[in-house]
Amino acid sequence: MNRKYIGYARVSSREQNEDRQIIALTEYGVQPDLIFCDKTSGKDFNRDNYKQMLKRLKKGKILVIKSIDRLGRNYEEIINQWRHITKEIGADIVVLDMSILDTRQFKDLLGTFISDLTLQLLSFVAENERTNIRQRQAEGIAAAKAKGVVFGRPPEFNSDDYTGIFRKYLNKEIKRQNAVCMIGCSTATFYRMMQEQREKGRL
Asked: 189: domain range?
């Protein structure tokens, strides 16, 4: 395991499973306590654990992600974040599914041009797919409404469902970012639910 590696994983909803990404990251050499995971849309970078991950990135560190769309799905913001990490922070980025997107390599002018061009093409594809997904979702919702399906707000988190995870966190068996990822909530919600469990005398 390499303490220079910092992993980031993302799935778009609570129902999706991030295990495949985490396995790929750990097999590459990222330590589990340095893997940050969000269960949220990739439309922007306003994500709790992504922000925590950025705080850990320093010059000489290496961000490892499985694929470019795990970083995000907004073309312009992916480019901006990539430049922020590599130019302003001074960290490197490795995309496991695309070996050419490894900023530790191709440090010469031609290599940088090829890497940047590949990044822009892949980012465009990722955003285009997000646009197509939105269109398919809108069409699906419209069709469902036409059939009388009623849509409502998703159920809120119930702290009683996660007592075991809170105990593992308090016993230092898992890190906070891992616990948050397992539940699929924000950091603020995690601490609020844990406080509820304390007040109920379960922790």
From this structure: 159-199
